Amino acid sequence: MDTDTLRLFVAAAERLNITAAGRDLGLAPAMSSNRLAKLEKELGVELLHRTTRKVSLSQDGAAFLPYAREIIAQAEAGRAALGEDTLNPSGILRFAAPSSFAQLHIIPLLPEFQNRYPDITLDLRLSDKRFDIIDGSFDLALRNAPLKDSSLLGRKLSDDSRVLCASPAYLDRFGVPTTPEDLKGHRFLAWSDMAAREIVHQDGQRAILDPEKMTCRTVLDDGTSQRLATLAGMGISINSLWSVAHDLAAGTLMQTLPEWRLNDQSVLWLIYPKSNVLTPKVRCFMDFLVDRLS
């Protein structure tokens, strides 16, 4: 099975445009269509539905897509094992990450990465809602949660310490809590998960932060929005230090209960499917992020 044709199919499936996918690979429109038709004939299925107005992925095409990506990855790994493609990694790298972290810490680094590796195209999916890395056919993803899925492998990027904070204006108006019990009745900016969380004191004491005992008038599912709402004085919130470090240093936010932190042992992981070969493009992006952000 021709890997160049598989690359064309993957590109067409991602862009839903055969002409554009072919152009990216240096192919004329007619040649692109002929190659895909030959692949479909070889497999005995229609991979892409075509009309005069649009292209869409068929059910068979959706089922075949992750295998096509895996074949390409295996071919790249084989060339890497023979010493090829290691100096000039290339291809499309599909990467998923929380948007809040990416906006602050990854996007500013991308010009440097792309100058260093001009043959790698980054296909980024940024959202604070978690993507399924296997179903989404991602090469790599950033997760801020314990690595529990046995089908995934990971490399630690950093600890993800989380603290309580609020704006000076909010604390001036509603008072500064000095113990966990003082949080009762305070306005709390909650995530959609309203579960109680354990917090731990620097001397080892433990307590429970229960949103049900606080006043939750705003529920958010986006870290950047939560930070902005906290800056606006809407309440106390839980934030990762990487999100609010500059605000704390500038005094626009104040750490609440500064001797306490969330006890969830959260870590930022760069993860990838165990079944995937760690290709040169994935390895160099992972090394780049660890070098710059760990």
Automatic annotation (TrEMBL):
Among InterPro entries, the record links this protein to: LysR-type_TF_proteobact-type, LysR_HTH_N, LysR_subst-bd, WH-like_DNA-bd_sf, WH_DNA-bd_sf
- Judging by the UniProt lineage, the source's domain of life is Bacteria
Q: In the record, what terms sit under GO molecular function?
A: DNA binding; DNA-binding transcription factor activity
Keyword presence, Transcription: yes
Domain HTH lysR-type as annotated: residue spans = 1-58
Keywords on this record? Answer: DNA-binding, Transcription, Transcription regulation
The regions listed as transmembrane in this protein's record are none
**Its family?**
Belongs to the LysR transcriptional regulatory family.
**Protein name as catalogued:** HTH-type transcriptional regulator DmlR
Organism of provenance:
Pacificibacter marinus
